[in-house]
Amino acid sequence: MRWLGEQFGRVDALLARVSGRRRVLVDAPTATSFATLAPVFQRLLRDRRVELLFAARRPADVLAAARAAGVRSRVHARSAMLWRRIDVVLAADLRDPIALHRCRRRIGFFHGAAGACDLESAGDREAAFGAYDRVAFIDAGRMHRYVELGLVSRQAAVLVGYPKVDALANGRYDAADVHGKLQLEMHRRTAMYAPSWSPASSLHLAGEAIVESLVAAGFNVVVKLHDRSLDASEAALGGGVDWRARFARIHVPGRIAFVETADASPLLAASDVVVTDHSSIGFEFLLLDRPLLVFDAPDLTRAAQLDPAAVARLRSAARVVRDAGAVGAAAADEIDHPERLSDVRRAVARDTFYEPGTATERALAVVYEMLDLPAAAASAGMRAPAHRAA
Questions:
Q1: Are 363 and 338 part of one and the same domain?
Q2: Which of 310, 315, 307, 308 has its CA nearest to residue 345?
Q3: How far apart are CA 264 and CA 285, in angstroms?
Q4: Pair (294, 233) in one structural domain
Q5: Distance in angstroms (rounded) separating the CA atoms of residues 364 and 344
Q6: Is the per-residue pLDDT at 122 higher than 50?
Q7: Contacts of 148 (CB under 8 A, 6+ apart)
């Protein structure tokens, strides 16, 4: 099989040179993955030298997210890509590389900043990083740590940042427009509730009570659950709860919006405060330097295999609340005193995201390097390439 793969590789490289067109596969296993990779593949869609293909575990489940991200072509099952010629694959799940027999190069992206699923454990090393020619890191601290631990080679590690938050960091969303689309009362302050995915999360402990407390305190509430909390195939791991039905019971027209969009960035731009337990959304919200609340879920770090350092970092920039009934009053108090943790919020945001607002350009530089194509033809004004590990 290895010999056969090498022969295909030589032929495929020749085909790419002769045709002048490169084939990029976007492997987006979940709906959230499309939001993670969208800023990069949206730019590649403009380049006539590049043909884009899209794959997912269950294409029907991600179709809405793909369309929202601008994908108009078919989303294939991963199995259909096994023998397709691929020049570069962009992968949003480092732990689960797609099986490809004719792929020249792979780029792995982190799909969040929360430090979940214990990617640093010895058992996950090869599965998580061994398959990738480049690993695009969100922050310098994790990149240097992974290189020192031997999880990623110095050649493979590149410091890119997080393309998903570029639009948020650059202020590209209109909060009033978002409120209007959500049909929320315009004169009220808006809180977003964004719990993580785990039976040990705040959602299972007190999700509805948290939302009701916020409503009672006068807030509009945007409920944004992790996509796996709504995935029927994950029901056993997620506690087997129909959260759509549960939140429908407490719905208040004009005051509560239950949102299933894959990209939370527009919702964050329209929120005055965010309540989470430990979600990448919490870290992303810090870019706006607005108040953040963390609801204490005592067993979440163990159950979700979270990085304890990441947990401590998020909590340092937030007000920690342990009583669901007190969430609304605490949120109102934090909005009235936004200066309390402002310095910490900004410091944690700086440590979490490398040069937010410009990450997409660095990600594209890595993609074009792997494609053996000059970037300037598709990306005028390309910024400096991603930094390599020293």
A1: no
A2: 315
A3: 10
A4: yes
A5: 31
A6: no
A7: none
281, 294 Cβ separation under 8 angstroms: no
Whose CA is closest to 286, among 296, 271, 301, 300?
A: 271
Residue 148's pLDDT band, with cuts at 50, 70 and 90, is very high
Q: For the residues 125-139, what does the mean pLDDT come to?
A: 84
Q: At 10, which amino acid appears?
A: R
Question: The CATH number of the domain where 175 resides is what?
Answer: 3.40.50.2000
**Reduced to 3 states, what is the DSSP secondary structure of residue 386?**
coil
Are residues 186 and 225 both part of a single domain?
yes
CB 66 within 8 A of CB 35: no
Residue 179 structure tokens: 């409120």
Cα separation of 103 and 88, whole Å?
A: 7
Q: How far apart are CA 132 and CA 91, in angstroms?
A: 9
pTM: 0.90
Q: Are residues 363 and 344 in the same domain?
A: no
Count of structural domains within the chain:
2
Distance CA 363, CA 358 (A): 9
Contact between 80 and 98 under an 8 Å Cβ cutoff? The reply is no
Q: What is the residue-averaged pLDDT of the chain?
A: 89
pLDDT value of position 126 = 53
State whether 48 and 180 are in the same domain.
no
Asked if 275 and 192 touch (Cβ cutoff 8 Å), the reply is yes
Residue 185 sits in the same domain as residue 56 = no
Instruction: Identify the burial level of 178 via C-beta atoms within 10 angstroms of its C-beta, where 0-12 means exposed, 13-18 middle and 19 or more buried.
Output: buried
Instruction: Decide the pairing of beta strands 256-259 and 157-159.
Output: unpaired
With CA atoms as reference, report the closest residue to 52 among 22, 8, 82, 18.
22
Half-sphere exposure of 121 (CA within 13 A, CB side): 11
Q: Kindly tell me if the per-residue pLDDT of 238 is higher than 60.
A: no
Domain that holds residue 236: 170-352
